[in-house]
Amino acid sequence: MLKGLSAALAVVAALAGAACSQTPSHAAAVPAAAPAAQIAPWGLDLGARDAAVKPGDDFYRYAEGHWLDSQQIPADHSRWGSFEELSERSHEQVRAIVEGLPAGAPAGSVAQKVGDYYRSYLDTATIERLGLAPAQAGLDAIAAARSYADVATLMGRPDLGLRSPLRLGMAPDQKDPDHYMVILTQGGLGLPDRDYYLKDEAVYSKLRTQYVEHITRLLSLSGTTDAATQAHAILELETHIARLHWPAAKRRERDLTYNPRSTAELAQLAPGFPWQALFGAAGLEAQPRFVVRELDAVQALARQFTTVPLDTWRAYLRYHYLVAHCDVLPQAFDGECFEFYDHTLHGQPQQRERWKRATDAVDSDLGEAVGELYVARYFPPSSKQLVLDLVENLRATYAAHIKQLPLMSDATKQVALQKLAAFHPKIGYPDRWRDYGSLSVVNGDAFGNAVRARVFDWQRQVRRLGQPTDRGEWGMTPQTINAYYNPTFNEVVFPAAILQPPFFDPHADPAVNYGGIGAVIGHEMGHGFDDQGSKSDARGVLHAWWQPGDTDAFKKRVDSLAAQYDGFTVLPGLNVNGRLTLGENIGDLGGLSVSLDAYHHSLAGAAAPLRDGLTGDQRFFLAYAQIWRSLNRDEQLRSQVLSNPHSPPKFRVNGVVRNVNAWYAAFDVRPGDQLYLSEDERVHIW
Length: 686
Description:
Elements: H1 5-20, H2 59-70, E1 79-81, H3 82-99, H4 110-122, H5 124-130, H6 136-143, H7 148-156, E2 166-173, E3 176-186, H8 195-198, H9 202-221, H10 227-244, H11 248-251, E4 259-262, H12 263-269, H13 275-281, E5 289-292, H14 295-304, H15 310-325, H16 331-346, H17 354-378, H18 381-403, H19 410-422, E6 424-428, H20 446-464, E7 484-486, E8 491-495, H21 510-526, H22 548-566, E9 569-571, E10 574-575, H23 582-602, H24 616-627, E11 630-632, H25 634-643, H26 649-657, H27 661-666
Parallel strand pairs: 3-5, 6-8
Antiparallel strand pairs: 1-11, 2-3, 4-5, 7-8, 9-10
Helix pairs in contact: 2-24, 3-17, 4-17, 6-15, 7-13, 7-15, 9-10, 9-16, 10-15, 18-19, 18-21, 18-23, 21-23, 21-24, 23-26
């Protein structure tokens, strides 16, 4: 929201007049009745726009240029926008819940566990007084490693939380979604992505130097005498690991990353690696089968394991053990980790207040316990039903689009419609809450609480191996500002916290809700048919169900979309990676297109009313742009472009609308405008 009411009203008046000149003559005016929307007067931030910018030149800035110019990124953030604003609100709400819990709650109760976890995290005086003592057992275990089997054992121990070049995890089997599978994947890097180690540009060379300096300081704090030598050895090791890693874009390919192997086959893959030591420490010694994601990378990482000196492995493990726990260690450790990982790598000038980090820690380790209290206080059941209605309207619109899609044959359309009908929407919160009964939380033991929570969750997952999958489980807590599509369960999931303005307001103009949460719902549903989600069927089984000719036609279109995004410059010398971001860009484009049609269908043949001189389509597109408004620090953008499958916010707007025909008509976009694409250049997928 804007600061300064009179300035905001002046901008609104000017922009309303400009928009009115673009209004189609057949749209009917209505009385200016003011609904009780949280963003006055009817759900759109009218004062955010910049009338000096032509919509066809930079729609992102046209929709929110005044907001971009009038806002600043808070010192404790690396970016600031709609998601961060709601996240701040969610933190405040969780804080109110947790700090309202009684200090003397019965032992073992949810109130005791959540309250004591939070209070212990905030008790920096005790953390400072204890020093490194809580971490000493782990440090001693690392120092005592005298063989490669010892190192592998340490990497497999869930209590240590160590970074490892071979990471273990659990997830539903992509070819048998009714059962869980252990996943073996590449890992082991302290910097955000392999490119940070391998690129020659000065910015990356400087970051590598700063990384070594940071490692040196952190190891020195823990009493290491030859910290600088060890830091250089750690960088050399991680650089070698990075050379073996698959690039981020390749790791998206689901058919390439499904490589089942038995324990015997793993032994043949890398005979010298101490597999049983790794699996035994993780409680997986009886597991007969694994899925290897990056097959040749995992093989190379396992084969080089015994070529690294044990001294280097001990230094590497010591450093990453300290990093994994620095937030529950004394301020010198916590501050050092902040300075490198948040300030240097992401440009964040100031560490977030301790209570905000405490709510994040509680969300990570006791998230559903807090979530149950959160939805009872902040999420009305009526909102859930309204969003479910939106989902069904979007489902029907997707079906209509699929039936008319020229790139699909009838055989492929039939399976696609079956998959769409099987989409399972989860709205707000889970039907069954997670049981934290066996998790011990001790007041005054922040370090131990974090360790026990990590072990608790790992053991919970190990116990499920061999059991039917829990399709009611959520991958996000209700207080999370996000949403997701899970291809293995064929489900779309929308936590309660995102179902509020600017994404959704039951009292807002329907065009705003369809441009906001409707586009988000459409985006997540679209993941079921993007370049990777489309590789699973209605049951979530990974297999090829498209007819070969249809796959070729689809690939031609998405290749064109990837090429468009490759051309977007984020920072000097750094462009969007069209392949890495392809799935999200397909989701954005399909979601916006389908949600627009769903909005039109919701009008039941009536003309959309004018509101403040804006047509329904104009309000729809502006609402979409405003959910993505964001200010980003350059360091954060660099990290996002290299390692994140989402395009930067500006291109989630400009890169999408220029492919939607209705946007051209809504804002009178013509040849010569900077975003203009000729009809044959526009990519239409769904």
